[in-house]
Amino acid sequence: MVILLIIFLSIASPYFLTPGNITVVGRQIALALIISTGMTFVILIGGIDLSVGSIVALVSVLTGGAMVSLGLPPVVAVLIALLGGLAVGVVNGVINAYGGLPSFVVTLGMLAAARGVALGITGGSTISGFPEPFLFLGQGSIAGVPVPIWIAAVIAVVAHVVLTRTTYGRHIFFVGSNEEAAVLSGIDVRRIKVSVFVISAGLAAVSGILETSRLSVGQPGAGNGYELLAIGAAVIGGASLFGGVGGVLGTALGTTLLLLIQNALILLGISPYWQQVFSGAIIVGAVALNQWRRRRA
Amino acid sequence: MVILLIIFLSIASPYFLTPGNITVVGRQIALALIISTGMTFVILIGGIDLSVGSIVALVSVLTGGAMVSLGLPPVVAVLIALLGGLAVGVVNGVINAYGGLPSFVVTLGMLAAARGVALGITGGSTISGFPEPFLFLGQGSIAGVPVPIWIAAVIAVVAHVVLTRTTYGRHIFFVGSNEEAAVLSGIDVRRIKVSVFVISAGLAAVSGILETSRLSVGQPGAGNGYELLAIGAAVIGGASLFGGVGGVLGTALGTTLLLLIQNALILLGISPYWQQVFSGAIIVGAVALNQWRRRRA
Amino acid sequence: MADHPVVAMRGIVKTYPGVRALSSVDLSIRSGEVMALVGENGAGKSTLLKILAGAARADEGQILVDGERVAINSPRDAQDAGIAVIYQELNLASHLSVAENVYVGREPRTRLGTVDFGAMRRGSEALLRGLGVSLDSTRLVGDLNIAMRQMVEIAKALLVNARVVVMDEPTSSLTEEEVDALLALVRRLRESGVAVVYVSHRMREIFEIADRITVLRDGAVVGVREADAARPGDIVQMMVGRDLEDLYGVRASNVDEKAVPALEVRGLGCGALLHDVSFSVRPGEIVALSGLIGAGRSHAALAIFGARRRTAGQVLLDGVPRRFRSPKDAMAAGIGLVPEDRKAQGLFLGLPVRENMSSASLASISRLAFVSGRRDRALAGRFAQQLNLRSSALEVGAGTLSGGNQQKVVLARWLARSPRVLILDEPTRGVDVGAKAEIYALIRRIAADGVAVLVISSELTEVLGIADRIVVMREGYGVGELDASDATEKRVMALATGVQDDGTSYLAQNSERS
Amino acid sequence: SGPGSGTSAASDAASVAPGKSGGTFVFLPKSLNNPYWVDARKGMEAEAKKLGVKAQFLGPDNDDAAAQVQIFDSVLATNPAGIAISPNDPASVVGDIAKARAAGIPVIAWDGPVPNSQVLGYIGTNNVAAGEQAGEALASAIGNKGKVAVVIGSLTAVNLNQRLEGVKKALAKHPDIKLVATQTSGESVATAQSAAETILQAQPDLSGMIGIGGSDLPGIAGALKSGGKCGSIKAVGFDVVPQGIAGMKGGCVDALISQKPFGMTAQALQILVDLDKGKPGPGKDFNIDTGVVTVTPSTLDEFLKTEH
Ligand SMILES: Nc1ncnc2c1ncn2[C@@H]1O[C@H](COP(=O)(O)OP(=O)(O)OP(=O)(O)O)[C@@H](O)[C@H]1O
Ligand SMILES: Nc1ncnc2c1ncn2[C@@H]1O[C@H](COP(=O)(O)OP(=O)(O)OP(=O)(O)O)[C@@H](O)[C@H]1O
Ligand SMILES: [Mg+2]
Ligand SMILES: [Mg+2]
C-alpha cells in the first residue's frame, strides 16, 4: 500500500524522489516513528498513551532550560531531559498498573499535567540559543543520512527484535492478549505495564530532544496532537486497541503513510483548504485496501 | 466526587454559587454533555468516534452557509446542517460495520475529512450575521434556564432511558460486551453499529448548532479537540473503551467534572500557566477516589 | 413420530485455511429423537452444528427443513427455522445479568414499550429451576463460574419453543446432579416431539440418552448406529480407530505413606467462599478434589496458587509454610495450575498455539532473554505428539482450534514446566476419549516420577478412576476424605450433597477426616 | 493619556484607590502558547506594577474561539474591574461584551478589533496593514520579482487571514512576483518547518517566504538553515520573537514585522485603569493604532533597545 503510494508519487511529482525531498520526509518520519514505536508497546498491552505529545513539550523545555538557561553541558542537559521524560512514564505506569486506573484516564491527566509543567516553568516563552554540538543531533548527518534517521532506525530495529524475539516481548503479547491468563502463567503483569509506559515516555523524550535540536528551540507548545498521530500510525499499521495485535513493522508503515500524505499533498500543490479531505480519504482508503487484500489472501 | 468538588468550590470561591456563574457553567456543561452522550453510545459498543469535533465544525459552517450566505429560513438551515451531521455518522457507521475497518481509523479519517470540507467550503473564513430567532437557541432562556440546558437535559434523560430500559439499549450493551455472542443471539450487530455512529454524529450536530448560535458565528475551526473531551468525560464517568460498560449518568458526572475544573481554576485565580497541572491532577485524583470508594463498597 | 427428518444436512463441505473441517457430511434428525454426534477432537462436530445454526457458512451442501431447502445465512435464519443452539464455547455477555443473557433478542416488553425486567427475571429463574439450579438472575454473568454459565447458556436455548435443539457439549463443566437434571429435560423435550442433537465426550451420557449415534471422523461420517444395538466399545473404536480397553490405566501405588506431603493445606479460608479446607498431597500421589458446582474447589486451587488472597489457614510445601503473593511466586516454588476456564483464564486466543504452549516455560527455552526459536518449536512439537495434536496446527491462532484441542494446549503449557506440584482443574473438559486415556496415562506417569497431583473434576467416574484419594468439598467447606479403595459414587455424592441415602444430613458425622 | 498619577481630578473619595472597584483587570488573549503573548503579558505585568493594580492574563492553550468564550464567561462571574479582549473570532465575543457592559464592566478591544459590539474602543494594530508591510518588505528584499510562498498558522484564525489578505494586496502591486504555495502549520514550529522544507523541495526556484503566524517564521528560518538556503531565499515574518532574532542574526531572516505587543498591552492597561476610575480615557469609540514596525537586520539592535 505504502509502496503503491510511493510509486504513484514518483510519477505524479518530479520532486518526490529527489535526494533532498527524501531527506526531508525521512527526517520527519524518523521523529514520528520514534514516538509511534513507543506507542506500539503500550497499545500491544491494550493500553493507550495520550501523554506523548506533552512529554515532547516537557522534554523540549527541560532541554532548553538545562542547556541554555542553566548553561549545563549538552550531555548533562540531555540526560536530565531524558530522565524527566522517563519519570513521567513511571508515574503513568505506576498509577495504571498499581492504582488500577484506565490508561486513558491516567494519560489524559498527564497530557494536561505535563504540558502544564512545561508551560509553567517557561511562562509560555520559548528558549533558543542552543550550542552548536547539540544542534548536530537534529540537524546533522552521518554518511549523508540525517542523524534522526539513524537513531529512529536503530530504535525501530531494536524494538522489533525485542517484541518478536525476547521473552519480554512475548510477555507483552501475552498481557495484551489475555491479562488473566498472563497472571496465571506467572507473568508479573504490573511490571510489564509499568515498563511499556516507561518505554513509550522514554521514546517520546528521545523524539522531543531530537525535535528541539532540529528546530533549535525549546517550546512548551511542542508536540501538540502527536498522540493522535502516533496512535493513528500504530492502528493504521494493523495494531488493535484491544491489545495483543500489532508490531513495529506495521507501525513504521503507518507512520510513513501518514507523513507521506502530508508531503505529497504539498508537493502536488493541492489547495491547503482541501488537503485534509484528501488525507482523510487516503487514510481510510489505504486501510480498507490493506484489509481487503489480507482477506483475499 | 463531583459533589465534593462543588462543596469545596462553594466555600473556596464566593463567585462559584452566584446565579450568573451557575448559568455560565451550566451552559458549558450542556453543550459538552450533548456530545459526550452520543460518544457514550459509541464507546458502549467498544468503538470510538474521533470525528465529533469536526462534525461540530462542519455543522457550524453549514448552518452559517445556509442561513446567512444563502439566506434560507433558520428552520430549514438547521435541518440541512443536522442532515449533514447525520450523513457523516452514516458514512462512519457503514464503513465501520460493513467495511470492517476499526472505528478509530474510520473516524480518524473523518476527523480530517469533515474539517477539510468545512475549511474548503468557507475558504477559512467565518460566517456571522445570524438572524435573532436563531440566536435564541444558544443564548436565550426559558423559565430562567438557558435553552441549551433544557435541550441537553432532555437528550440525556432520553438517552438514559433508551440505554437502560429499551431492547435497543440492552442490545448495545450486549454488542459491546461480546460481539460474537450478540451475532449468535440473532442481534443485527451491523445495524446497531451504524446506529450508534449516527446517534453520536447527530448529537454532535445538535451541539454544533447550539454552539454556533451561542457564539453567533459559523466557523470551520470550531470543535477542535472536542473528541478528547467527550471520550474523556465518558471514561472518567466509568465507561470502558473495551465496550459493554458505561452509562449516561457517569458521562454526565464526567462532563461536569471536566468543565467545573476549568471554571474553578479561573474563579480561584490560579495562574493560567499552571492550571493544566491542577486539572490533570484533579482528573486522575477524582477517578482514583471513585475507584477506591467503589472497591471498598 | 414423523418419518421424514425435520432437519437434513446434505453434502456439507467446509474448509478453513489449511484445514478441511468437513468433507461432504450428511446428517438427518427426526422429530422426537435424540441424535448423538460423537467424534474425536477436531472431527468437525462443532463446525457442522455451527453451519446448521447459521454461525458459519458452508462452502458446499444444503440444509433441508421439513424436506424443503432453506438458506441459513445467519443465526436469525436458524432461529426462524426453529433451531435453537447451545454453543460449545459459551456465548454470553459477561457485563449483563443472567436474565438479560437468557432473553437477549426476545425481551418481553411492558405496555410502555420498555423492557420488562420483572418478567425476564421470573422467566429465567423458572427456566433455571427446571434445570435444577437456583440462581439469582440479576447477577452478572461475568461473576459466575463456568458451570453456572453453562446452565445460563442452556436456559437461553430452551427459552424458545424450538423444534430442533442443538447441544454442543452442554455438560462439559457440569457435575452428575446437573447432568441428570439436563438429561431429564432432554427426555421431556423428546417426548414433546422436539428433535435434539447432542454432542458429548462422556460415553455414559450418550448411551443414556441417545436414540441414534452418528460418528464423525476427520470431517466425514463414518457411521450411524441405533443406540440400542451399539456397544460403547464399537463406537469408541469407530471414533478413534483403535480399542480402548482401560481408560484410566493401572493404579501404580508407589506413594510413600510416610513421606512429607509435597503440598499441604491447613484450614484454608478465603472470605465467604472458603472455610477450613484441609488436605495434603504426597509426592507421587494423585488426589482428587470433588464436590458440586460452586463447592469452592476452583477457588481453593486459585488460593493455593497465589491467584486469590487467602484470609485464613496455611499452605505448606514439603512441610514448610509458604506465602505466595502471586502465581509467579507459586510457580517459582514448583506449583503448576491448569485453570478450569480455558478461554478466560488459559488461552491467548489470538496468538499461535506454539507460543501458548511455551508461555509458562520461556525461561527454559531462552538464553539472555532471547527466545530460542528452535527450542520453542521442539517443545511444542513434543507435546503436540504426546497429546495427539496435529503439528500443522502449531502456528495457527489458538482460537481456531476445536474446543478439546484447546484444552490440550493449556495442559501442554503446564506439563512443559514439569512442576513438583501440579493442580489440574477440569483437565479433560471437552477432550475426546482417546485423548483422555492419553492424558490419564500422562498424569500417572508424572505422578510416578514423584510429582504431587491434585485433580479437580466434575466427572465422578474420572475422579474414581484416577485418584488415590478423594477430598470432598461442599459450600466452601472441606467435608470429608475417602480412600480410593473404599470410595464409591454413592459415598462421594453423599458427602458432596450432605444428604445420605436415608436422607439424613451428613454434616453431623463428617469427621471422617484423616 | 499619561501615566495614571491617581489622585488628581477625583470627585468621589473612592477614586483615591488605584482602581475604583479595587478589582482585577483581565486580559483575554487569543492563546498563551506563543512568544508574542509572552511579550504582551510582560507589558501588562510591568504596567500593573507601575500603576499598582492587579491584572490577570487568561487565555486558552490554542487559538480557539469557543474555549476563549468559555473563559470570558467564567471571568464575568468574578466581576473584574475591566476587560481587554483580543478575540479569536470577533463575532463570538459580542454577546459576552454586552453582558460585561450591562454589568458595568468596561471592555476594550485590544490587539484585534471587535466591530459591531459595545466595546469602548480599540487599541492595537491593523492586521491588514501589517500584512501589507510584510509583503512590501519581502518584495523589496527579493528585488520585486520571483516566486514566493506563504506558511500560515491557521486557515481559520481571523487575524492571520487579515494579515494574509494584506500580504496578497501588497504582492499584487508587483506583477513579477508570484505566490506559488500556501501551507498551514497548525501554529506549530515543527509543522511549519516541515511544510517549509517540503515547499523548498517542490519549488526549487523560490525567491522568498513569509511566515504569517507566530510559529511560522521560526519554522521557515529552520528550513532555510537546514536546506542551506539562508540568504539566497528571503524570509519575512511577524513578531520579534527570540528565534526570529536569532534567525536574523544568523542571516536567515530578512525582515520582521513587529506589532510591539509589550507597549500595546501596557497602554491598554493604562486605558482600562483610567476607565475604571471614571476618567474620560481616550474618548468615545477610540481607535488607537499602535502601529507596526518593520525590523531589518540594520535596525534590529536599535529596535531591541526599545520596549517593544
Ligand atoms: N475459525 C476457524 N479457523 C480455522 N480452523 C478452524 C476454525 N474453526 C474450526 N477450525 C478447524 O476445523 C476443524 C474442526 O473443528 P471443530 O471445532 O468442528 O471440531 P469438534 O469436532 O467440535 O472438536 P471438539 O470435540 O474438540 O470440540 C479443526 O481442525 C479446527 O481446527
Ligand atoms: N470473585 C468472585 N466473586 C463472587 N463470587 C464468586 C467469585 N468467584 C467465585 N464465586 C462464586 O463462589 C462459588 C464458588 O465458586 P468456584 O468456582 O470456586 O466453585 P467450584 O467448586 O470450582 O465450582 P465448579 O465445580 O463449578 O468449578 C460460586 O458460586 C461462584 O459463583
Ligand atoms: Mg467442538
Ligand atoms: Mg471449578
UniProtKB/TrEMBL annotation, chains A, B:
Q: In its keyword annotation, does this UniProt entry include Transmembrane? A: yes
For this UniProt record, the keywords arranged alphabetically read as follows:
Cell membrane, Membrane, Transmembrane, Transmembrane helix
Instruction: Identify the InterPro entries for this entry.
Output: ABC_transp_permease
Specify one Pfam family.
Answer: BPD_transp_2
What topology does it adopt in the membrane?
A: Multi-pass membrane protein
The subcellular location is:
Cell membrane
Give the residue spans that cross the bilayer. Answer: 30-63, 75-95, 101-122, 134-163, 228-261, 273-292
Main location group = membrane
Report which superkingdom the organism of origin falls in. Bacteria
Q: What is this protein called?
A: ABC transporter permease
Q: Show the taxonomic lineage.
A: Bacteria, Bacillati, Actinomycetota, Actinomycetes, Micrococcales
UniProtKB/TrEMBL annotation, chain C:
The organism's place on the tree of life at top rank: Bacteria
User: Where does the UniProt annotation place the signal sequence?
Assistant: none
Show where the ABC transporter domain sits. Answer: 7-243, 250-500
Q: Which UniProt keywords apply?
A: ATP-binding, Nucleotide-binding, Repeat, Transport
PANTHER family in the record, alphabetically? CARBOHYDRATE TRANSPORT ATP-BINDING PROTEIN MG119-RELATED (PTHR43790), GALACTOFURANOSE TRANSPORTER ATP-BINDING PROTEIN YTFR (PTHR43790:SF9)
For this protein's source organism, the top of the classification is: Bacteria, Bacillati, Actinomycetota, Actinomycetes, Micrococcales
| Molecular function per GO | ATP binding
What is the protein's name according to its record?
Answer: Sugar ABC transporter ATP-binding protein
Q: Name one Pfam family in it.
A: ABC_tran
